[in-house]
Amino acid sequence: MPLKVNYGVDYNDDYNVYEDDNYHYDDLYEYENEKRDITHQTKAKQEVIRTGAWRCPICTYDNEDSMSECDICGALRNCLVRISQTGDSTADTFHAGGGRCKSSGASVMVKSLFASFRHRAPAKSVAFEAKNDAVLIEDAFIIRRNFQEFLRAFSSQKHQNINIAAPFKFDSPSPDDLVSTRLHSSKLDSKANFKRLSSLDMSTREREKNILIESELGTEGPNSSSASVARDGGVKERDFASDCGIKPEILVSRMRSVSLSSKSRTGNVNEETGTSNLEYKPEAWMIPDQAEDRLSQLNLAIVGHVDSGKSTLSGRLLHLLGRISQKEMHRHEKEAKQQGKGSFAYAWALDESAEERERGITMTVAVAFFNSRKYHVVLLDSPGHRDFVPNMISGATQADAAILVVDASMGSFEAGLDPIGGQTREHALLIRSFGVDQIIVVVNKMDVVEYSQERFEMVKQKLGTFLRSCGFKDSSVLWVPASSMENQNLVATPDERLFSWFHGPCLLDAIDSLQLPARDYSKPLLMPICDIIKSQSQGQVSTCGKLVTGAIRTGSKVLIMPSREVATIRSLERDSQACKIARSGDNVTVNLQGIENNHVTAGGVLCHPDFPVRVSNHLELKILVLDIKIPILSGSQLELHIHHAKEAATVVKILSLLDPKTGKVTKKSPRCILAKQNAVVEVVLQGSVCVEEYAESRALGRVSLRSSGRTVALGLVTQIMKTQ
Ligand code: GTP
Ligand code: MG
């Protein structure tokens, strides 16, 4: 998988002919035709499958036979049973034994590509219809009720030392340098090892503490929400979940007497390593010096429906801020024009692979950096196409905040909010479930609607309703009308067309107004590995990822899980610059020595040698089921995503249904779980994953469950069970 990291300006740049103001782009009609042609060509190509390869049913890429998951979109090869949302059974058919794909699956890709085109706006007409409003709003309310209630049920706790408050904080902030999401084949190398270790891991474990989560029904005002709980060293983690009570009408329910088992990493170590009852104490260097003169790192995920202009926006921003040189920009423009895709020039700054450029869509997360006045921003440009949501998940789990890009043009905005396949909707839900509570909504392509205030207000009203239903507080959502193509409202005040009615901040100022989430320096190191770079010649392995907790520095020893090997940190890089120390929240490349290549895998975790992360393939989860058509049954097969790992999962037991308001058990051992229900289930994974209970670590205790290319449920790990 090509790593997509933007290293910034080429300082040898001596090209200055490029004139930004004259930069022009293709008409949308032309663009659509381009995409259609490509799709047909691609389809034709897909007829031929190489021998010794298997074709991904999701993105149609022909993978090496040794790959257990698609090298491009990360879809698992062996996820055999599907819960179809569409009832389309023609798409994916697998041999039960080898997990080989029989049908090409090309139709899925082609269909989904064209599905989104159908809604594209033809050129610049501005017409506003109230069509489907009722459905949209009704739908939004249903989701709002369920999602909010689920959030609330997990939200507040007034108890002991564990904060289960943030209902769906799958992951607190974080990004990393190289977010190429697919797990490498190296993951397979260590799987046998993995299983052995995980059984060791679990067999000696006893649960140490039972946490009673008190809950109560009540209404919380906007200010009663900051239920931050001091953790270990007194460092607080901001808890958004408890302040997701956006409006008085949204009652914040609390679970009563729900007993969760939890186990601290300290306890694990004692049993597994024989080092008795270690109490973790951060060393002085691990806590940042307030006087330190360096911009804080802000991990910013760019998400949104396909073709909303995320990459164009990112490319334009980087160019305006000097991270992409004129020379480089000119090259992109020239190449894009040569391929008949002039309008994609800015997007090509981030969409670097031939396949992405050919298809005109982003497939993997691109990582770039720039400095604002307040932050060193790590930009994570996500793919918007539904087939690449797994990649989006891996990148966005690291986000401290997000920019949700929506296309203002007629039909396109509506397509993004479509309950089936609208990625504005799915991305917003996912991003919220990762614990992101601050969001900037860029209403892009305002040029297409002639900078109409009416259209902007309509988008704001409809999307605002939906975002509230996801748990975003009104005060944490910033609205920025913009045109990436015409450079309006990105880094400076827009011209009269926008400025006549919009006086809010431009995008760059909006980014500076974001708050940095509190970082947890008081806990032992945890860094989920997003990607690895292996240098055969130098025998060196580099891992990329965001530190969830703790700190590392050159020379530190780290434990690599699940292989349980210890390595030494040879050097650290932040934004391709060498650095000595990295702390919680930093997105870094860690160059390791004293470790063999095959002991490090993407989806693994770097930890403190005395405080290993847990490893298991058997989990108890609390889940909120989204809008599915076919119920989840015992035996249902899903795809489980947790930090940068994913595994095929089988629901082995449905323990109970929960009241979304109170969290109380309403039914024990139900036969199935329907849309929008809350439940406790047990899942067994095909391979083990590094995991923590949510009570211990939010970042490693949040999961999302997917099936047939759609997210079907969001969940929290409530218990790690003995590996099966
Ligand atoms: P995916 O990553 O595949 O989801 O797409 P994306 O959201 O990154 O969209 P991308 O940046 O690739 O842009 C898609 C198309 O929209 C390109 O043809 C862009 O030129 C066009 N586009 C982006 N921003 C604007 C804008 O502000 N105005 C107009 N008119 N077109 C835009
Ligand atoms: Mg893109």
Structure in words:
With 724 residues, the protein is α+β, with helices and mostly antiparallel strands. 22% of the residues lie in helices and 25% in strands. The chain contains 15 helices and 31 strands. The strands form eight sheets. Strands 13, 14, 15, 17, 18, 19, 21 and 22 form an eight-stranded antiparallel sheet that branches. A six-stranded mixed sheet has the order 8-9-7-10-11-12, sandwiched between helices. Strands 23-29-26-25-30-31 form a six-stranded antiparallel barrel, surrounded by four helices. The radius of gyration is 24 Å and the shape is globular. It starts with 27 loop residues before the first helix and ends with a strand. Mean pLDDT is 72; it is low at 6-48, 79-144 and 153-276.
What does this entry show, briefly?
The protein is α+β, with helices and mostly antiparallel strands. It is built from 15 helices and 31 strands. The longest helix is centred in the first third of the chain and has 22 residues, at 133-154.
Keywords:
single chain; 724 residues; alpha+beta; 8-stranded antiparallel sheet; 6-stranded mixed sheet; 15 helices; 31 strands; binds guanosine-5'-triphosphate; binds magnesium ion
